[in-house]
Design goal:
This protein has 728 residues and is α/β, with parallel strands linked by helices. It contains 34 helices and 17 strands. The strands form four sheets. It has a seven-stranded parallel sheet, sandwiched between helices. Strands 8-13-12-9-11-10 form a six-stranded parallel sheet, sandwiched between helices.
């Protein structure tokens, strides 16, 4: 029953085209070959599937792979068939098959053609399948996505709890449980439920050196995204958004800008969702814009970038989603657009939930915002979160290492900010405290008489944004906390009081503006500088054509690193093709002839393919946003509520409203202005614009009317009212 472990390297090269194993792969395989149970914790892109695919090829019988993901089963079966000349080598059993297809699967298993049988847990629970498999030789059981077993896991599925009794019924064989994410509590629950508490545990490093991590400020994110995609034309990417509406809006924006993109979220019907996923896998579209509903079932190795339009709710979610980039070890850019307003929005959504749930959610968000705003190596922070130490000072592949942030001594600023929180009796949000420090007067400041406080205006040498950033970093340092029961209000902690009693050095990270004209340092990619770009492009086109003919995703034919090797070494015979990375003899014989013919012709004739010029178009027409804003104002929706629903800052919404009224549309925002300021203040500003102003300049108005009495926001609101009433 025990297979010859020395065959592992031979099969690795012959079937899969690789010379060496990754990390723990070989140890896991040798373990199952000797009849031992295994628990495998390996991050996304770490090569989990090879841990059961390869030993299945060398062991007697059929390996049963239990997976909850129909799409993943199909992808992996297609991939295994591509590695072999025999289609029957791999099959799946799930609800998508017809009776004729099921009978074909069972016949191939019975005739010992099938080395890998992928089964959905629901299918495994069916009595007739269980009875059929009971009479067969099972080499081992692989439980993929094993965290689904645990009620403490992030994707619990009750059917997974019934796997062990079914294994006992079919017949005991080594068990391999595999997952990309498991806390110690989840790990113990998995092993206990499967009855493998004595299993050998294999934990791989969570470090993905080929992934480039970057956090950008969320300023004109659509424009930044469009530019990035245009600069990476022809590459596959995923963009994650938190809401379905944002997914739809962004996908539409990309399409209008000439980018092939489709949406994916749970609100779409199953057929549309599956169709959009297949088009992405088949490279009929470049980009999928998705909620977190997308990704678990995607085994696409050549995703070149993962963008987050919204910051994820947890670092675990962030790690998993970014992990879908560069799974083939090639280029993988992970860029997240961050605004602290998004964190506040997520905190607001937690209101009304049980306090314990709120506390967990707030802690996860705190970790996320700490990561986003930190100036230290992104990789070091992520690995520390998963209990792994990273000892290098500079990973050379994240924004903080390539573009270190400016830091200043902030001891006195933090002390002043904490004093201000105490002065307003720990009952106000950061924005209000920042206005007190900068000496701004608005209706709330006047109502609570905070303009009479001793601390009022003591920080006016810095702007409001600076003080909000100071308060935020004091939150991250846990000198301040937010009141759960009274959303958003700041309270000083024991650590904060200790700091006030004994101030120590505190380095503040200055906010960085990610202006679209700024030149960012180029991240380290996974490709080689020696690749012939013209040949590489021709090879990709050929791959796409062959993939369509076989109705397979292109990466199943050959992955990008294989094409890169071909564009470096110019193989002109099938035997040479078999030596390319990730090819192997079986794949070379199955698909190689057309590729070597193309390469031979290219080498002989030295043809050159003209590269397409990059064209960056302007942002999409936002006429739909204008209509929505006008309709909301007609319904008297508060402007801050409109801004939040559109994912805008209030400042951005005011720009949009100014654009609307400046173009001749009359809007009545009196309902909002009346809530913000009293009649006298309104009349003063309105009269200024009517009788004294020489221009529409907000700065001139502030200078004339007095910055201590009016804010920029006050001026802009009345200017909108003035233009709307007097000009339109």
């Amino acid at each position: 029953m025990i297979a010859d472990t020395e065959r592992l390297h031979e099969v690795l090269k012959t079937y899969f085209g690789f010379d060496t194993f990754k990390d723990n792969q070989e140890g896991v395989m040798r373990n199952v070959l000797t009849g031992r149970d295994s628990f495998v914790l390996m991050p996304t892109g770490g090569g989990k599937s090879l841990c059961y695919q390869l030993p299945a090829m060398v062991m007697k019988g059929t390996a049963i792979v239990i997976s909850p993901l129909i799409a993943l089963m199909k992808n992996q079966v297609d991939a295994m068939r591509a590695f072999s000349m025999e289609d029957g080598i791999a099959h799946f059993l799930n609800s998508s098959l017809t009776k004729v297809q099921i009978n074909r699967v069972l016949e191939d298993v019975k005739s010992h053609k099938t080395k890998l049988l992928y089964v959905a847990p629901e299918s495994l629970n069916k009595l007739d399948y269980t009875e059929f498999l009971t009479g067969e030789t099972i080499s081992f059981y692989a439980i993929d996505e094993a965290h689904c077993i645990s009620e403490w896991g992030h994707d619990f599925r009750p059917e997974y709890r019934r796997i062990r009794p079914i294994i006992e019924q079919i017949g005991r064989a080594p068990i391999m449980a595999l997952t990309a994410t498991a806390t110690p509590k989840v790990q113990n629950d998995i092993q206990k439920n499967l009855g493998i508490l004595e299993a050998d545990v294999f934990k791989s490093s969570f470090n993905r050196p080929n992934l480039y991590y970057e956090i950008r400020q969320k300023v004109d994110p659509e424009k930044q995204i469009i530019r990035f995609i245009k600069e990476n034309a022809g590459k596959s990417g995923i963009i994650y958004c938190l809401s379905r509406k944002q997914v739809e809006d962004l996908a539409e924006t990309l399409v209008v800008n000439g980018i092939k993109a489709l949406p994916y979220h749970a609100g779409l019907d199953g057929t549309t969702r599956a169709g959009n996923q297949d088009k992405f896998l088949m490279e009929e579209v470049e980009v999928i814009v998705a909620t977190i509903a997308f990704g678990m079932g995607i085994d696409k190795p050549d995703v070149r970038y993962v963008l987050h339009y919204d910051i994820p709710k947890s670092l675990e979610g962030y790690y998993q989603e970014t992990g879908r980039a560069g799974r083939d070890g090639g280029e993988g850019n992970c860029i997240t657009f961050y605004s602290y307003k998004d964190i506040q929005k997520l905190e607001k959504f937690m209101q009304g939930k049980p306090v314990a749930e709120q506390e967990i959610g707030r802690q996860l968000l705190h970790e996320t915002s700490s990561y986003a705003e930190s100036s230290i190596c992104r990789r070091r922070q992520l690995l520390h979160y998963f209990g792994e130490e990273y000892h290098q000072d500079n990973c050379e592949n994240c924004d903080n290492c390539l573009n270190p942030k400016t830091q200043i001594e902030g001891r006195d600023y933090v002390a002043l900010a904490l004093d201000a929180v105490l002065e307003v009796r720990e009952k106000f949000k950061p924005e209000h405290v920042a206005k007190v420090l900068t000496g701004q007067v608005n209706s709330a400041i006047r109502t609570y008489k905070h303009h009479h406080l001793e601390i009022f205006g003591q920080g006016k040498d810095k702007d409001e944004r600076f003080w909000v950033a100071v308060l935020r970093q004091a939150l991250i340092a846990q000198m301040l906390e937010k009141d759960i029961d009274n959303y958003g209000t700041l309270r000083i902690t024991d650590a904060g009081r200790e700091f006030l009693d004994n101030p120590v050095s505190f380095m503040l990270t200055e906010d960085q503006n990610f202006d679209e004209s700024d030149e960012q340092k180029t991240p380290r990619g996974g490709g080689s500088g020696a690749v012939d770009p013209e040949l590489f492009s021709l090879l990709k086109d050929l791959r796409k054509t062959i993939a369509k003919k076989h109705n397979l995703p292109p990466f199943v034919i050959f992955q990008d690193p294989s094409l890169e090797d071909m564009a470096i070494y110019y193989p002109i015979r099938v035997e040479e093709m078999a030596n390319m990375t990730g090819v192997g003899l079986g794949k070379a014989q199955r698909y190689g002839k057309e590729f070597v013919d193309l390469i031979r012709k290219f080498v002989e004739e030295k043809e050159i393919l003209r590269p397409q010029d990059l064209v960056v178009r302007s942002i999409v027409n936002k006429s739909s946003l204008k209509v929505s804003v006008i309709q909301s104002i007609d319904r008297k929706v508060p402007l801050d509520v409109i801004a939040e629903s559109k994912g805008l800052e209030l400042n951005e919404l005011l720009k949009e409203i100014e654009s609307i009224v400046n173009s001749g549309t009359k809007l009545n925002i009196d309902y909002f202005i009346n809530e913000m300021m009293d009649e006298d203040h309104q009349d003063t500003i309105f009269t200024f614009f009517k009788e004294e102003a020489k221009s529409e300049s907000v700065e001139d108005a502030l200078q004339e009317l007095g910055e201590n009495e009016f804010t920029e926001e006050d001026i802009r609101l009345i200017r909108i009212k003035f233009i709307s009433e007097m000009g339109n």
